[in-house]
Amino acid sequence: MIEKSITLPDGRLLGYGLYGNPLGIPILDFHGIPGSRCEAALIASSLKRDDLCFIGFDRPGYGISTPKRNYKIIDIPADVAALVDHLNLQRFIALGFSGGGPFALACSAQMPERLAATGVVSGVGPSEVGSDGMHDSNKKKFNLAQRMPALARMMLQAGFTNLRRHPDQLGLQLNKLWQQIPEADQKVLQHEDFSQGIMDITLDAIRQTVTGWVDEEILMTRPWQFNLADLQAENLFLWHGEKDRNVPISMAKATAERIPGCQAKFLPDEGHLSLLYNHGEEIISTLVKASGL
Fold first, then answer.
1. Strands 25-30, 92-97: parallel, antiparallel or unpaired by DSSP?
2. 90-110 burial by CB neighbour count: b if 16+ within 10 A, else e?
3. Between β-strands 236-241 and 92-97, what pairing exists: parallel, antiparallel or unpaired?
4. Domains contained in the chain, number
5. Is 56 within 8 Å of 37 (Cβ atoms)?
6. CATH of the domain at 56
7. Domain of residue 47, residue span
8. CB-based contacts of 3: which residues, under 8 Å, 6+ apart?
9. Cis peptide before 34 (omega within 30 of 0)
């Protein structure tokens, strides 16, 4: 495990980590919301493969990365380009999980020549699809952020700041949330290493500030500023569980339908978290084979 940071051209810090074999096939993980570079560590530890290097990085305002004022989804490819240049990577595999999906797709739009393959797993879809199919907590948060973003920002800032000040409350809050998710997800959360990993990632995400989490909750309800129909990247895959109530299947289908040549797989018995947990080996092997790396 290697964890470091780089200074970006505008002076911000970007935190990143290398997990697994540092000389292995590079897979850049775009973490969920909230999240941090440590998500890549959790994936690497669950797969236990010695031929892969999982690269995690903290988007602005998460982990050890500096916040970026008024940042947009389409700003992330420039940060990614700086990171992969620093790591001397000409091409890499992009893996976008949950809220990381739109950011991985933005890289497919802006730097397709660098992406050997792209995988979106349980990924957030275009906001205009709406919140139907989400569990109650996500639906209320999404609808408020979409209709009254200023009020939502104020409320999210207060709630997340309280959690940051009282991290001992995280377990209780997550347990309440997890009662709203499908059985498939609840089952994988019974594995202590996995559920503890999620808690560790959440706390790492807000170790310095809650700005990244607040910003991205709002971002997910706004237009993405790029057109999925214009994506030219090769080897673009999408996986989604039909029982997902964090990100409804309608979002995934809308994403797949709009991307030319997208290879989509919808799994009827999987939820949001269970998909990557139960099918991680298949997903990563598919991406590695397609990439030719």
1. parallel
2. eebbbbbbbbbbbbbbbbbbb
3. unpaired
4. 1
5. yes
6. 3.40.50.1820
7. 2-291
8. 15, 16, 17, 18, 37
9. yes
